[in-house]
User: Which sequence fits this backbone?
């Protein structure tokens, strides 16, 4: 009798947060398996292969920005600055440690960890004064930070020889004083050339899973609830004893660290990287991924980042009209996604499907009568 009662006990339905978590991991894992099968079968052309690692990097960038914009509720327009810090620090680490670490995956992992650490430090230094601001003021300051980082890297020279790393600022590469056999890594406005191509699609997949794990666990934790309470009502959060600056800084630094790791992954997919790549436009396009995917919606961000990164390549056959069509698609998607009539239509559609799946009381009565 006890076993029958236990087996007949109703199962608790999955919570919305659990469903979102399963959806996020499911989308990434299924996509990786399908793409791996297509790659092994030779069904992916070279141009699409070249986009796989940038897509992974942009997904991690969009997820990290969604933590700041969607979960924390603060608009950041300088996220490409953290990606830039991670890209150049990761490249310096990879080229300096290439002789000491023979394993390519290990060298890539160490480089991305160093990149994430440097970006986190930059995020901490920027966040201490900046996160006391709100709204438009914070957006303007973060925008300025991104441009400052780009210009600082244009003036930075870094080299490596048997004596270690050498740095010079506002000079030339000759000021590094490298010994014979030394190599200039960052050559001011010329950027970095001769980068070892360490990034792989599998590494990008793993980085996405790590980013999801960190963000989803933070969001569903006590600290995540405090961050969302600050987003919803800062005054109410302060009144119950939540340290607003501390929790905002926590989310901001975590977001910066993930952006730095994505920057390292992105940079080590190319042989040459310049600071102009991580400009204001990069911050804006990542923000577009977040807005179209839904603020606070991680699986939506993954889909939007993937589709909008692929779209320019898919529209390449239209030639000069490619970016015009891309802009029109963005406008249409924004209008549709914010249209109340479309939202009501899909709400009714899904509610009908759910009601069709749920058995009615009459069905239960008929079933019970039949059993009798």
Assistant:
């Amino acid at each position: 009798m006890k076993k029958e009662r236990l087996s007949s006990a109703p199962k608790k339905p999955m919570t919305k947060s659990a469903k979102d978590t399963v959806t996020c991991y499911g989308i990434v894992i299924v996509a990786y398996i399908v793409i791996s099968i297509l790659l092994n079968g030779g069904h992916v052309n070279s141009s699409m292969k070249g986009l796989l690692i940038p897509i992974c990097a942009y997904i991690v960038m969009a997820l990290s920005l969604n933590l700041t914009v969607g979960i924390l509720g603060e608009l950041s327009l300088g996220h490409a600055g953290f990606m830039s810090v991670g890209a150049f620090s990761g490249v310096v680490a990879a080229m300096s440690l290439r002789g000491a670490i023979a394993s390519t995956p290990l060298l890539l992992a160490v480089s991305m960890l160093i990149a994430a650490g440097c970006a986190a430090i930059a995020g901490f230094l920027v966040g201490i004064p900046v996160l006391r601001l709100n709204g438009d003021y914070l957006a303007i300051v973060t925008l300025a930070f991104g441009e400052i980082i780009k210009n600082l890297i244009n003036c930075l020279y870094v080299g490596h020889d048997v004596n270690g790393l050498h740095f010079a600022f506002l000079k030339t590469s000759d000021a590094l004083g490298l010994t014979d056999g030394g190599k200039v890594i960052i050559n001011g406005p010329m950027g970095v050339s001769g980068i070892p191509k360490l990034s792989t699609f599998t590494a990008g997949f793993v980085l996405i899973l790590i980013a999801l794990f960190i963000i989803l666990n933070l969001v569903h934790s006590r600290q995540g609830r405090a961050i969302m309470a600050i987003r919803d009502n800062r005054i109410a959060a302060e009144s119950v004893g939540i340290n607003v600056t501390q929790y905002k800084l926590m989310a901001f630094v975590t977001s910066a660290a993930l952006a730095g790791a994505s920057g390292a992954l992105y940079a080590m997919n190319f042989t040459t990287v310049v600071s102009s790549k991580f400009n204001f436009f990069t911050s804006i396009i990542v923000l577009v991924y977040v807005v179209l995917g839904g603020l606070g919606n991680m699986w939506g961000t993954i889909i939007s980042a993937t589709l909008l990164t692929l779209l320019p390549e898919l529209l390449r056959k239209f030639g000069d009209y490619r970016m015009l069509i891309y802009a029109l698609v963005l406008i249409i998607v924004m209008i549709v996604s914010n249209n109340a009539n479309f939202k009501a239509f899909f709400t009714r559609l899904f509610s009908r499907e759910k009601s069709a799946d749920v058995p009615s009381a009459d069905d239960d009565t008929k079933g019970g009568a039949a059993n009798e």
About this structure: DSSP finds 15 helices and five strands in the chain. The first helix runs from residue 2 to 8. Residues 17-32+48-314 form a domain with the ABC transporter involved in vitamin B12 uptake, BtuC fold (CATH 1.10.3470). The beta strands are 156-161, 164-169, 183-187, 192-193, 272-273.
